[in-house]
Each structure stands twice: as structure tokens, then as C-alpha cells.
Amino acid sequence: MNEPWRLKGDFVLSCNCTVFCPCVISLGQHESTEGYCQTWFGIRIEEGHFGETDISGLNVGVIADIPGPLVRGNWTAGLFVDERASIYAVKALTRIFTGKAGGSTGLLKILVGNFLGVRTEKIDYRIEGETHIFEIPKVVEGVVRPIAGKDKGENVVVHNTGYWVGRDVTIARAETSRVRAFGRNWNFAGRSAELVRLDWGNHQG
């Protein structure tokens, strides 16, 4: 029986697709633009809990190396948890982001075949205007901006998707996107990115 959990906050993702990631529309059935996926994503939890454990105010980062279409699995992934998290919060977030807690992230339990482990790090996720800045010193450096739409003041957004992250996805571009972790050295500047407002949980949450 899983603990009830829920989190709300912001999500930023940067990947190696040269144009907007086809996974959002194809729900992971279509290959990425490069035939394989390399990605990182960051989460800023505004409010959240796992059972009685408070996870509000914490940041999380994930890197993933995926050999083909996302739904085929065989992902290699590593998790970074905010150094400010209590030991209970680290355990809670590890369960959530390995899919073991079920709910919104439950598919990760099936898709991730090689889990590289959990590292606690200083993680900064801030929003300046519309720019999302995500940093784990010496690990991830990301600056992501939404793509402006035709109507002034409105960005390009894909609405009502079945995407696991969220139904409304803001199409974005990475101004800066560097990863140096777990033997990877990636640079996705100028490539696809996305922004989502999160409301995740399991059936009890």
C-alpha cells in the first residue's frame, strides 16, 4: 500500500531534440528528432507531501539517457535531491521519482531499467520574468525561455495533451543547457525545451 502523495510546482525540461520534442504529442511512441533521447528535467515543489512527510519548498533534478522511443523503456536515469531535504524527504522523493510510489510518476518504475542512484546536491530553481533558471553546481546549468506566440504577451502552448507530465505544455528553447554527471557531458543550447505547471500525485493524494 503506497503512502498518499501529492506535489504542485514548476517543471522545466531540456533535451537533445533539435525542434520541439515529438514525445509530447505522440506520448512517447515517436522517436526523438535524433533517434535517441538525452534529457534533464528540474522540479520546484511549491507544496507537497508524501504521507506525513512535508516535501514543500524542495527542488529535484533528473537526468535520463534513452536509447529509442520513450515507451520502449530501457532508460538510464539518475536523481538529484535538494541538500535541504530531511532524510525522510529524500526517501520520499526517491520513491516518487523511481515510480515506486505509483500515481503520476508510476511509469518510471517500468521505463527506467538502469537507475544510477541518488545524490543530494545544492539545487537552485528560480523564475525571473518568464525565464526558468535551473542549476546544480558543476552538474546542470540550464536557462530556458518560452517561445513567444503571434499574439503579444502569449507564448506557444500545447493544450489538453495526454502527456504524463501535464496536460498543458509551454513550448520553450534552452538558451543554456549543460550536463556533466554520471559520465555524461551534454550541451543542448538552442534545442528543445518545455515548461509545465505540475499537479502530481497518486490516487490517494
Helix-strand layout with pairing:
Layout: E1 5-15, H1 23-26, E2 37-50, E3 53-54, E4 59-66, E5 75-82, H2 87-97, H3 108-111, E6 112-121, E7 124-128, E8 131-136, E9 140-146, E10 157-158, E11 169-181, E12 184-187, E13 192-201
Parallel strand pairs: 5-6
Antiparallel strand pairs: 1-2, 1-13, 2-3, 2-4, 4-5, 7-8, 8-9, 9-11, 10-11, 11-12, 11-13
Write a brief caption for the model.
A hairpin with a 3-residue loop joins strand 8 and strand 9 (140-146).
Salient structural properties:
mainly beta, 13-stranded mixed β-sheet
Account of the 3D structure:
- The chain has one domain.
- Helix content is 9%, strand content 49%.
- The protein contains three helices and 13 strands; from the N terminus they run βαββββααββββββββ.
- Strands 1, 2, 3, 4, 5, 6, 7, 8, 9, 10, 11, 12 and 13 form a 13-stranded mixed sheet that branches.
- The protein is globular, with a radius of gyration of 16 Å.
- The mean pLDDT is 95.
Describe the global form. Answer: globular
Structural class: mainly beta
Helicity range? under 10%
Can you tell me the number of structural domains? 1
Largest sheet: 13 strands, mixed
Could you tell me the mean pLDDT? 95
**Total helical segments:** 3
